[in-house]
């Protein structure tokens, strides 16, 4: 499952530098011993016990995108019994690991809601990284520290056949533990390394007899290699030639957010007097293919983009933006990271272009990976279940011709609406239509929301939201998903909107209403709130859904009609897929025949019509029997349809009840 030659080459290098690595990393063994000497789940004062147990683990619980250690202690001070229960369940080895981690996160979500009523806190930071650290401190003979960026680097460095899945943290954690177990088995057999560990260990350290902690240290060492893709570089005299830079934008002149991904921008090397800018050596050293971290000083100090140098002449430095950060990292967070203490920009912020060391760049990108669950365009590994037209027609009861029509409309128009009666599988079909076009079940490229009467531009695009101390500018769900799609232009992305006709389209989309049209994709528009340039990318497709049997809705907004193609979804009782489904569920054949007859009567009813027909999905619910479907699904629907005609209502109910007599 991994390349042992590369692993052994890295182990040789690790052992040759062991004393230096130990000096930097032995605090982990001290933290474990201190935790285990002080941990008592039944302590009378749980908050003080937790605080003392984590006293030596500061660095371990600081860099996972803000401060998880501090937040869990704040929770324990306010809600000690709830946090005690969270840890009791987390450390319960009789339960499934994934379930324990998910329950811990959900419990933290609930505590954050309560905590926010009194304190200004935006996040609890209890991620897979911090939760794995708690597990590791408590049971270091079984667990490891999981960090996405490190796991990804080790996979690449060792040519390991493990999946790195974007947006699936718990799956990555379990795969990471399996990979580290494999590495650990090889480390256990290395007598030279075992002697090094023993000679450096004293009474203040956890003994690490099973070499799990050593595996964590070694994998951290691997992840910090200059070029994890070429682990034997030294023997071939190959070194990384890529430099890293920090470029500060002047928002009064230009912003990184104004640059469209893939377009070239330049930064002048001359000041207003025509003289070279400050720190001229950095400008001279910059060259093509160097990477630039984009920093904006206003309206909030944060890094927002990643760029690459394309070329340079005597007057200008040219670069292309290759990624926007959906969740920018702010200045205060960066200042709190120990690895960035000597960052050139922090030492002397005067100027524009600053040098960033390899270690500093990796530390910054760790934050980005933790906070931006999206593919790294420079180096990504993805693997998802295959999903094609064949799988779509197996799952969705639709004809092959209708499927081809849908795909063609979506690719050309970019926006479609699936409209139909209750139970025709609009939502189910929309999601699987996206999968079939992508060719895989990549849920990270599909976003699902629901409109309602109070849904606003501020929810959808961008706007000011109240906080405990005032108002803060927040990006909406569509804004962030557009950025995510723009960062990955070679892939298709799908934004699915349920009940699309319940929202006020003009109000919700604002200036982006025109930009969703196929002819206006990738064309910049200025946002009303920030005056920033923004695009709706060409690779983003919008699928809306609306229920034609909803009596409460007025006429469809003309803005909706103009910009979407409308596709009627009909009951699929006569499709080949549903007939095959009935072969596996013969007990539904009689009910199907009755519903088909009933649909004919609904269609003929002048007060209803085709848009109120009963869909096939009512018969596709797992573990449902005929009696419950008729009693709890179909009869209430008939009562609603003929609420003003008791005679007809009773006739049709009797029509169905005959099946279960």
Description of the structure:
This protein has 661 residues and is an alpha/beta fold. The chain is built from 27 helices and 15 strands. A six-stranded mixed beta sheet has the order 2-5-4-3-1-6. Strands 8-11-14-7-15 form a five-stranded parallel beta sheet. A hairpin with a 3-residue loop joins strand 4 (302-312) and strand 5. Helix 6 packs antiparallel against helix 7 (97-115), helix 9 (148-157) crosses helix 12 and helix 10 crosses helix 12 (212-223). The chain is globular, with a radius of gyration of 29 Å.
Q: Helical residue percent?
A: 40-55%
Q: What is the global morphology?
A: globular
Radius of gyration: 29 Å
Low-confidence stretches: 226-240, 372-383
The main pleated sheet reads as:
6 strands, mixed
What is the straight-line distance between the termini? 60 Å
Kindly state the number of beta strands: 15
On the 0-100 scale, what is the average pLDDT?
83
Strand order in the largest sheet: 2-5-4-3-1-6
Give the structural class: alpha/beta
Number of domains: 4
Strand portion, in percent?
5-15%
**Tally of separate helices:** 27
